[in-house]
């Protein structure tokens, strides 16, 4: 049987212990999916897996607002990031919410008939462009932390998936068949329609640091702060080893993101370092801007005997979150009396 993992060999989920096993337990209960590759691929780096799951849970699953709307936002993000795996996943999850006609309309590439649904989908697409003013929101303002958290976590997850997984959500791309989409979606329908209690994932986190103002004191805040801290620090290697990205690599990543306008890079990959000269910086920049352009040659040029699967996940996570950071930093501050971004 083919594996969905491109460059890593994660430990079999049945062998998981500690925080990884706790994450799998929560995913099974609250997401209704047993050990999805989206998270299994992160298990080589538990310090990334745990906050990534926490942010998804506390925004998409347990956050305020309609699950169908948040799935549409996530679908819009996945479409604009060119992530077929995640597009197929969210189409199936719309079946899980009970919105079967909507799911199939979107699977055919058609626009939702319901204009509110269409506006949420468009909003999700627009979030790729840093500085795009998302106001007025196509959802109640009090639901903004959950919707923003959903969009940002899928900007991260899309990049992880495109870099480290194949495009096949199910073997032989069976999810492209209408009957399979419907059956698979209905199988997790009970979990998708059950209201999850906010905060359950926060017990898995270490001290996450300050939450950004847009999270407005919700459980989305600590989860986002924890992922931000883990991903920003993921260039660091183990004690006594060289950093996975040195200072010059990190400067190159920052420079590539500084003026990024959300566009996908040209075929020539102008401005992306040569794999022979700066392989780690190249991987991180591609993870940020076009993870689907990462090739076997890019990974092979970076690999050294000391580079474990955990190292690769961390380099990709660093780049993926650099794009999230750029998008998040350009969000307008909410009108909550706070005058500065945390």
Q: What does this molecule look like?
A:
With 342 residues, the chain is mostly helical. It has 15 helices and no strands. It has helices spanning 18-31, 37-40, 46-61, 67-80, 84-96, 100-107, 115-126, 144-164, 178-187, 189-193, 220-232, 247-258, 279-289, 296-302, 309-329. The longest helix is centred in the middle third of the chain and has 21 residues, at 144-164. It starts with 17 loop residues before the first helix and ends in a 13-residue tail after the last helix.
Quick overview of this protein structure:
The protein has 342 residues and is mostly helical.
Major sheet size, sense and barrel closure: none
Arithmetic mean pLDDT: 90
Determine the fraction of residues in helical runs and give it as a percent range: 40-55%
Radius of gyration: 19 Å
Order of helices and strands: HHHHHHHHHHHHHHH
The proportion of residues in beta strands is: under 5%
In terms of per-residue confidence, which ranges show pLDDT below 50 for 5 or more consecutive residues? 335-342
Structural class: mainly alpha
Q: First CA to last CA: what distance?
A: 47 Å
């Amino acid at each position: 049987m083919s594996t969905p993992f491109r460059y890593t060999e994660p430990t079999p989920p049945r062998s998981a212990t500690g925080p990884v096993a706790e994450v799998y337990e929560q995913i099974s209960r609250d997401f209704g999916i047993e050990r999805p590759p989206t998270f299994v691929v992160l298990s080589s780096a538990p310090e990334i897996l745990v906050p990534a799951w926490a942010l998804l849970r506390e925004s998409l699953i347990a956050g305020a607002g309609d699950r169908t709307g948040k799935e549409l936002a996530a679908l819009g993000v996945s479409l604009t990031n060119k992530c077929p795996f995640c597009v197929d996943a969210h189409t199936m999850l719309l079946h899980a919410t009970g919105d079967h006609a909507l799911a199939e309309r979107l699977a055919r590439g058609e626009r939702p008939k319901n204009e509110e649904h269409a506006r949420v989908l468009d909003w999700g697409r627009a979030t790729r462009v840093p500085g795009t003013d998302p106001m007025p929101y196509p959802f109640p303002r009090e639901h903004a932390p959950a919707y923003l958290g959903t969009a940002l976590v899928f900007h991260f997850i899309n990049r992880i998936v495109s870099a480290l997984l194949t495009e096949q959500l199910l073997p032989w791309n069976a999810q492209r068949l209408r009957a399979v989409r419907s059956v698979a979606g209905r199988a997790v329908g009970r979990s998708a329609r059950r209201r999850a209690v906010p905060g359950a994932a926060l017990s898995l986190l270490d001290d996450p640091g300050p939450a950004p103002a847009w999270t407005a004191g919700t459980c989305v805040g600590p989860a986002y702060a924890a992922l931000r801290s883990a991903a920003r620090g993921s260039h660091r290697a183990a004690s006594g080893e060289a950093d996975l990205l040195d200072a010059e690599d990190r400067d190159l990543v920052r420079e590539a993101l500084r003026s990024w306008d959300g566009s996908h890079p040209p075929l020539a990959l102008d401005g992306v370092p040569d794999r022979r000269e700066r392989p780690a910086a190249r991987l991180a920049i591609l993870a940020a801007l076009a993870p689907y352009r990462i090739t076997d040659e890019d990974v092979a040029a970076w690999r050294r005997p000391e580079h474990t699967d955990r190292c690769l996940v961390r380099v990709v996570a660093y780049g993926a979150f650099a794009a999230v950071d750029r998008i998040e930093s350009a969000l307008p501050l909410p009108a909550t009396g706070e005058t500065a971004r945390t």
